[in-house]
Amino acid sequence: MQHEDRELSKKFGVPALPGWAVLPLRLFLGGSFIAAGLDKLGDPAFLDPTSRDYIGQQIARFAPGTPLEGFLLNFAVPNAGLFGVLVMGGELCIGVAVLLGLLTRFSAFMGLLLNLTFFLSATWDVRPFYFGADLPYTIGWLTLMLAGPGPFALDWLLKRWLAAQEEAHTGEPLPATGTALTRRAFVGMGAAGLAALALAATGIDWEILHARRAEAGKLVAAGPQPTPALPIAPPAPLAPLQPAPEATQPPIEQPPQEAAPTQVPTPEAPQANGRQLLAAPGTLPVGQALQFNLPTGEPAVLNHSDSGYSAFVAICTHQGCTVRPNGTGQLACPCHGARFDASSGDVLRGPARRPLSPVSIVVDPDGSVYLVS
Fold first, then answer.
1. What is the pTM of this model?
2. Considering only CA atoms, which of 38, 155, 47, 159 is closest in space to residue 95?
3. How far is CA 309 from CA 208, 274, 303, 315, 339, in A?
């Protein structure tokens, strides 16, 4: 590669780019993909269909209106588990290969396809477009694919070894007991190896890092029928024990029923006329926020500012991540850095474009804050 660069430089009078100049790009792209893969690998909600952060729900939220809407809704969402594992395994395999300089051009091409897919789907709605990270990553992968790995890579060692193998068999018939490994065959084997590593992650199916979750999922899938038999068995022996001491004590069962009114929260709900108490007087000082869940299960946040109380659905309008108060009067999205005004819900920083959805609350004269259902 360096020899070719020198020849082109002499022919066109253009200074040759040093081979090591591509090393920072390799380190950044490879390290970023490994970090992204590990982040998904360590997130138990990523492949949990019961979580709102499940990969299938994420895809379903950002797919409408994108160029890949049909593919995402008709193929990716129904196969979200497999799709998520392939993305996670692909990021790890591509990142490791690029850091080592192994099959660099092929790995860069796969990274380009992955980030291009993300750009046409997950970050397609980001405005202005340069706020989205996937398009710059796509250009970075394209640059690496065109420039090659540089001298500090396993590809150069393999290239020298393959060149020596070819020279050893130049002009001579290949031995009957074996064949020389050509570059094309090696690239094919390497590509198949990377694909096999990504597919092997589907066999793991999240059971190694999250064994408890996997076991619970299997029990839930196969155990709803045997579970009722377990509680039925214990009451059977308990039934004869009750009449054995005294048959005159059935009225004793009435006192436990009288203890039920001691549950104070239950009578309070109808007294509040369908309202849920969020903050008692003086419990939420000015400048602080309180996180709670709506009756629908969605996260929400109550903020107390100088202008009063305000509440919003704590779901980022970009890709649906949960926003959290950062102590500066803002609600921050941990996924892509969007910022919202905690008092008004307005967007302070992209990539989100729409404000947060407000939540209806009522503040009583005594300072109690209620959620209006």
1. 0.54
2. 38
3. 45, 19, 6, 19, 19
CA atoms within 13 A on the CB side of 42: 6
Burial class of residue 212 (count of CB atoms within 10 Å of its CB; 0-12, 13-18, 19+): exposed
Residue carrying structure tokens 């809407």: 69
Model confidence over 27-85: pLDDT tens digits? 999 999 999 999 999 988 899 988 877 899 888 888 888 899 899 999 999 999 999 99
Question: Please, what's the b/e burial string for 4-17 (b: 16 or more CB within 10 A of its CB; e: otherwise)?
Answer: ebeeeeeeeeeeee
pLDDT of residue 89: 94
| Residue spans of the chain under pLDDT 70 | 1-18, 169-274
CA distance 274 to 180: 79
Distance CA 82, CA 202 (A): 7
- Closest to 328 in 3D by CA, of 318, 343, 315: 343
Roughly what angle, to the nearest 10 degrees, separates helices 104-119 and 134-147? 160
Q: Rounded distance, CA 202 to CA 222, Å?
A: 21
CB atoms within 10 A of CB 145: 17
For residue 370, what are its two tokens? 């209620």
| Cβ atoms of residues 9 and 15 within 8 Å | yes
